[in-house]
Each structure stands twice: as C-alpha cells, then as structure tokens.
C-alpha cells in the first residue's frame, strides 16, 4: 500500500450481514482516536454505511496521523431496525496505525450472535 493512499479516506470499512447474506446497509458507526496523553477516546466522526454496507469517507488524509483508533459499530440498533434482537449491542474494533502513508480497511462480518474482523486491503 505505502503512499498509494488515494484522495478518499485512508480508513474504510465494509459491514456484511452474514446471517442474511447481504450488506449491512444503514448501520451507524463512529471513528475515534486515542489521546495517549489523557488516555481518552476522541470522536472523529459518525457515519452510516451505504446501501452496499460500505463507509468510505471516515477521515481525511490531512487528519490521518499514526496512533490508536477504534471504530464503534452500532450493531444492536442495526438489528433492531430489521425487527430482530441480537446478543451484541455494539462492536468496537481497536487498531493501531504506525504509518500515516498506509491505508487501512477494517471489514466487519456480523450476525445476530457473532462477529469477526480482519485487516483488509
């Protein structure tokens, strides 16, 4: 990846509803960065996934600096909007960026009773 960060967000995500085999459209999520001096999470943005379950515009290249980040996915609200219950009210994925020239794709695979993630490309 290196310096191939395009004009889009250097952090992207894609949420798949694996229980139903469809993209998780309109799931609310938020991106945060850890302030290491105060050990608190600072909110960067709140967004919703699009119809394809993607959220491409989380942070600008200018605002992207090395550090610890987390994406909080509001999975409980998502399932509730579909008239279903779920075990997890939210999912938080915490990850570290050591090079601001890299891009980072953070997929989430979610069902009502499980979730998984991995470092995407």
List the defining traits of the structure above.
121 residues, mainly beta, Immunoglobulin-like, 5-stranded mixed beta sheet, 1 helix, 6% helix, peroxisome, 5-hydroxyisourate hydrolase, purine metabolism, hydroxyisourate hydrolase activity, Hydroxyisourate_hydrolase
Sum this structure up briefly.
The chain has about 120 residues and is mostly beta strands.
Verbal overview:
Pfam families: Transthyretin. Its EC number is 3.5.2.17. Keywords: Hydrolase, Peroxisome, Purine metabolism. It is a single chain. The protein is mainly β and 121 residues long. The protein has one domain (11-108): Transthyretin/hydroxyisourate hydrolase domain (Immunoglobulin-like, Sandwich). It is 6% helix and 45% strand.
Q: What does the overall shape look like? A: globular
Report mean pLDDT, rounded to a whole number: 92
CATH fold naming? Immunoglobulin-like
Give the low-pLDDT segments: 1-6
- Which structural class best describes the helix and strand composition? mainly beta
CATH class: Mainly Beta
CATH homologous superfamily placement: Transthyretin/hydroxyisourate hydrolase domain
Distance between the termini: 8 Å
Number of separate domains: 1
Radius of gyration: 14 Å
